[in-house]
Amino acid sequence: MSKIPLIVVVGPTASGKTALAIDIANYGGGEIVSADSMQIYKYMDIGSAKPTAEEMSQAVHHLIGFLEPDDEFSVADYTELAHKTIADITSRGKIAVMAGGTGLYINSVVNDVTFGEIDTDYELREKLQKTAEEKGSEYLLEMLAEFDKESAERLHPNNVRRIIRAIEFYKTTGKPISKHQEETKRVESRYNPLMICIDWDRDVLYDRINRRVDIMIKSGLLEEVKGLMDMGYTKELNSMKGIGYKEIMDYYDGKMSLEDAVELIKQSSRRYAKRQLTWFRRDDRIHYVSSKNPFEESKKLIDEFLK
């Protein structure tokens, strides 16, 4: 069976993935499949850096803004939807251009990871959730590290749901979820991917992040968060734990000044970018293109890829 060609634009936050993906989609006759774990939610446009209305009009985008902020959604759910979306795009004679910075989403699709069905242990899940509330997520990460060090090092403390899922997977199957993911990588993927990342100097990237946060504030991030709070969404939700949302919620709750909240968003965004870079550097399939002229360099790679 011939493999499905898939162009994948990856990279850290504020690296210019959206603009490059649009250029590539228009050049190659493609449609964009978002791979961003925050852009999947409705009403969360500014803080998640969704493509603007103008950008959305320049190319067809999929898997953006289709979930309520309190909907349950897993990486397995995303992977299933992405496979169906890519299949649909390909069936119409177009090429799918996956673009985003959520490494787990991207790897799960590109590597064709299969997610084993296991029974949900609701009692254990509730107990772990209570432990996280009482002792903090770092305590759960330490617990996870005892039998799955790789997952514990990879998961962010804010991602309590995935930490709990990794512990639950081990307790239910007796196998670390990282080992399960590694085993599924050995299954040959249905895709032939061309993976592209814009290569930025670290200091320049951090400056771009800082400036983008300032733009988000000016563009109405405070009003966006207030609107979500008025709709009844709370910071206990996974969606509201995203960078930019939890800090502004803390500001509204009187836990910090606006100045401190903005600075914390910048700091958290820079740290997130560092983790993203570390994640993507592990993948030797990725081609790095210059930040000075990313599209021109990408065109050469695409021409060779689509021969």
UniProtKB/TrEMBL annotation:
**Spans annotated as Interaction with substrate tRNA:** 36-39
Gene encoding the protein: miaA
Q: Where does ATP bind?
A: G11, P12, T13, A14, S15, G16, K17, T18
A Pfam family cross-referenced in the UniProt record is IPPT
Keyword check for DNA repair? no
Q: Please name the source species.
A: Hominilimicola fabiformis
Provide the binding site for substrate: T13, A14, S15, G16, K17, T18
Uppermost EC category: transferase
Alphabetically, the GO molecular function entries are: ATP binding; tRNA dimethylallyltransferase activity
Q: Return the annotated site residues (Interaction with substrate tRNA).
A: T102, R125
Quaternary structure note: Monomer.
Cofactor(s) needed, names only, are: Mg(2+)
Q: What is its EC number?
A: 2.5.1.75
A GO BP annotation:
tRNA modification
Q: What is this protein called?
A: tRNA dimethylallyltransferase
UniProt keywords, alphabetically: ATP-binding, Magnesium, Nucleotide-binding, Transferase, tRNA processing
